[in-house]
């Protein structure tokens, strides 16, 4: 382009100019191009002028200080910028400013100019490049102002005009004025887009073909007839043109994919669904029916019975009934022999099953070492708790010698629990060595014991009963922890309970109390030994027997009347409880007297029996024969006063007889009911009705069979014997002498034919009367020392234990095996039969003895009669015989004496 | 009449017999040796049982009929002889 070359230098030249004019005219490139031409000329001049620093006409450089800029609002780069350098200022303002600031005003040098200025507004332009010498310039003339503000506005005329104006303008303003120049039409040169366009143009490549179709006019709108035609080759043969192509179906191999797998889903859906929307129909149902049986009147019944059919019916049924009834009586067809057969054989088991298994053993190193255990009793209610009384093993002389030492050592009953085999749970302290004791069956918190000095002692362990039953075993741990806290190793303290009541010494036994027992709770005895009803149904009386020959009955209730006032006074001023002893029996303490005192005088000789054991007929808990106490229980239960005699009803059904076993091996049968002596009117103790001495040593056991209350076992010396109450001729069974002394015995609590015996060398023998009676069923060694007590006990259904105590203070608990605790079927009957047979045997022998005695006496009589007769007849003959004998005897005597040389031979007379 | 009495007495005196009841076709006791409440109970229950037993037998074989019914329990045995019009019930304790 022709204009191009000159363009390049233009920008450099007119840069200064265009810098001021850049804002106004983007579409004035063309004019600037023209202006640029001029400018190229002008630039030379301008550059010259610049060198000369001569501003063009109408342009006055002006320096504006900051203050002035602020006044006229033309601060550099704020109100006026390079792009927008123009600012119109009112002339009036300038004049005012000049007046105000006089010489200071920036317009002062151009004062005259401003005053002469024709217009109202002057144009100030920012000149950052200092083209005119200062940072601002002022357009002094209107034309210059116009030029600047509207550069090229008048230059639409021609180029020349523009040029001319441009020259002027260029000189004045130095900016190129863009003049609009319409575009010239030029030759169009294709750049390649023509091909696409041509493609799109539809151009005929050949001439258009013309066709003309015609039809007969009548055929228009004629009826149409269609006919069928086969679309196969036969049609072609028919001569018809194959107007249609048949497309028979064929098996396209593309589509013959054999489906090997087929996804299929099956769901079992009920074909029917039930729905209901209404409530259930509650139809009424009979809740209860009350009915009465139909009855017919007696007359009708009679009539019916007399009818002919009835007779026939009865006659016809009779044989059937007879058959059935007789069948039943002959034998029981439904009896299962097989089941019963196996019962006894199941117990064969192994040998180990049939001995007493050691379960536990209790001994206390402090309290029971080297002492003998005199009595053992199980707690009636709490399982696994038993009490043991320990005594020093000294003879009477030794006791006297060591009396001082013995006073210091306490006499104790130890209460053991299975939970703790090392430490006893409780200690009961007595005044002296305790020989026997028993828990009260109805109130197990009361223990009655008999001492070696003849006193009867009571303990009350109510406070510790919970401790015994609940925390067994926890106690020791807790107290051990406490001890550990203080850094000491303390043994857990076993609580000791002192006795709460002891009998008065003058009224007690004079010798040791050998046996103590509670009277059953369904009766009590009054002062005369007559059993009366016990309203409280609690055990309140104790019977004791001692070797001083007395049997005493004690009552633990307070005695009546005169002592009452004293007691009440004493109670009011009661001192605080000494030793923490229970005050329940305070009324008895030290003043207890027996209710009844029976001395056992010997029947045949003088003196008393010294009973060791006794056995009452009545058993605790067996009260079927006792009528219910009338009037119900009295209001005050517990230890009330002894009721007055007249309120009590005597009970006839209680047996007042009892057995005693003595130190000499005798078994005595006596009664505790006092007899009234008709002569003196006093009540006397009756003498024992019967006694026998079967044993060689003191009787240490006299006990009734728990199943048969009239069968007793007595064990003493080297033998034992079984008695039946009422059979006075002798023992049912008396054993042969055993190799060792029997020192203890007890019936088994579950098997009526079994009992246990203890020997001096520590063996326990188990005897079974049904098995064999000449030797024990089982002999087992339990301890090395002498067995002192055997007490079996049923702890639970599966566990039967027997407590065996010995002479060195140890209590062994053994478990009874199955075959010794489970009664065989029919054992009770078998035992009963056994005893009956034995009794029959005794009776038979008695009878026989009697019969034989009769016979013998008869014979003797006969003989005597005969003798008497013979004597009379041959009296003389006898005398002669005697004489002859006497003579021969004399001769013999002479001969002998001569031989001996005691008599000289008679010299024959010379 | 006396024969009937005699027969009944004969049955009653058999060993172990506790009681004897005669019931008519409607189930009402006609004659009994037990107390009233027991009789009524036995009559009602045994009558129903006998009817059921009889129907069972006849269902199996219509030509058949029930002749005697013995019901043995732990404590005793109940014997029943049915008839067209009457029912004779005897209770026996066999183990004596």
Automatic annotation (TrEMBL), chain B:
Function: Acts as one of several non-catalytic accessory components of the cytoplasmic dynein 1 complex that are thought to be involved in linking dynein to cargos and to adapter proteins that regulate dynein function. Cytoplasmic dynein 1 acts as a motor for the intracellular retrograde motility of vesicles and organelles along microtubules.
MF (Gene Ontology): dynein intermediate chain binding
Keyword set, alphabetical order: Cytoplasm, Cytoskeleton, Dynein, Microtubule, Motor protein, Transport
Subcellular locations according to the entry: Cytoplasm, Cytoskeleton
Residue ranges of every copy of the Roadblock/LAMTOR2 domain listed in the record: 4-92
Family (UniProt): Belongs to the GAMAD family.
Major site of localization recorded for this protein: cytoplasm
Protein name per UniProt: Dynein light chain roadblock
Source organism per UniProt: Ciona intestinalis
Biological processes, Gene Ontology terms: microtubule-based movement
Annotated GO CC locations: centrosome; cytoplasm; cytoplasmic dynein complex; microtubule
